[in-house]
Amino acid sequence: MYQHFILVASSYTEGARIGFHLSSEKQIEKNIIEDKMKRITQIKREDVGVHLLMTDSSDWESVIKLDSFFEDVIVCPSFEKFEEALMFDSKISAIDVAKFFLAVKPMSHLKLQKLVYLAYKEYLFKYKTSLFEEKIVAYKYGPVVEEVYQTFKEYGADAIKIDDKTDNVEYLLKNIHLPQAMGRMLLVKDVEKIVPILFKIIDNYGDFSGGELVDYTHSEKGPWETVYEPYANRKITDEVILSQAHYEKF
User: Fold this and answer.
1) CA–CA distances in Å: residue 69 to residues 49, 58, 168
2) Cα separation of 160 and 154, whole Å?
3) C-alpha span between 44 and 90 (Å, rounded)
4) Cβ-based neighbours of 175, under 8 Å, separated by 6 or more
5) Which of 17, 19, 82, 152 is the most buried (most CB within 10 A)?
6) What are the residues whose beta carbons fall under 8 Å from the beta carbon of 70, sequence distance 6 or more?
């Protein structure tokens, strides 16, 4: 008989369940399992399922034959690849932030861009680090994240709604169903810092129109005005935001 040590987690990036699989004809050494679990703990992913089971073969097919629960799991070629996938999922993107806002309330693309910028600014001021890796650039109508622009530009001036067509994955956590945009945050590093700031932005600016937020981000001497050149799409750096954002006032 063969012992199997299996780790399973949902991968937001892959849109599927991924796994790590180790098998041995003898009992798997305790220190090997402890090492893998220690590394998982360091990633701070609490959704990783741990399984120990026995089959008459070392291969993955014997695991599926024993329990169909594992049928759709994509097995990573190494623990390092599994670890890498989990760590990548722990990073938040500008689109994650945008989808979170849309899950709270429908809004125009113009307004969405400004809220994403304001969340970035708030997080930067409070924690002195970037909320996400994508650049913020100066467009004609204010700060823009180009990845968010490309994702939602088809809506034009219409309100964007998160629905079954745009965001149809649910996370199931202890019988609580969460839309993808909300459940996604539970996988993110520093979720306890990020989510309160996103709700703060909604509370403070969620009732303003896109046009009002454009006026706000166009404040004289503010970050946008400091770097803006027509058609240049210049980056609004963290340094500029930290030094000039106090000029943004309603």
Assistant:
1) 12, 18, 22
2) 10
3) 9
4) none
5) 82
6) 6, 8, 19, 60, 63, 64
Residue for token pair 């790590």: 20
| CA atoms within a 13 Å half-sphere pointing along the CA-CB vector of 245 | 18
Residue 81, pLDDT score: 95
What is the chain's alpha carbon radius of gyration, rounded to the nearest angstrom?
22
Q: Tens of pLDDT along 59-74?
A: 999 999 999 999 999 9
Neighbours of 248 (CB within 10 A): 20
Q: For the chain, how are helix, strand and coil distributed in percent, rounded to 5? A: 50, 20, 35
Mean pLDDT of the chain: 89
Q: What does the block give as tokens for 29?
A: 């050494």
Q: Which residue has the higher pLDDT, 165 or 238?
A: 238
pLDDT tens sequence across 162-172 = 654 444 443 33
Can you tell me the mean pLDDT for 104-111? 93
How many whole angstroms separate alpha carbon 135 and alpha carbon 223?
Answer: 14
Consecutive H or E run containing 160: strand 159-160
Task: Please choose, from the candidates 72, 176, 116, the residue with its C-alpha nearest in 3D space to the C-alpha of residue 186.
Answer: 176
The per-residue pLDDT for 47 is 83
Collapse the DSSP code of 26 into the 3-class scheme (helix H, G, I; strand E, B; otherwise coil) and give the result: coil
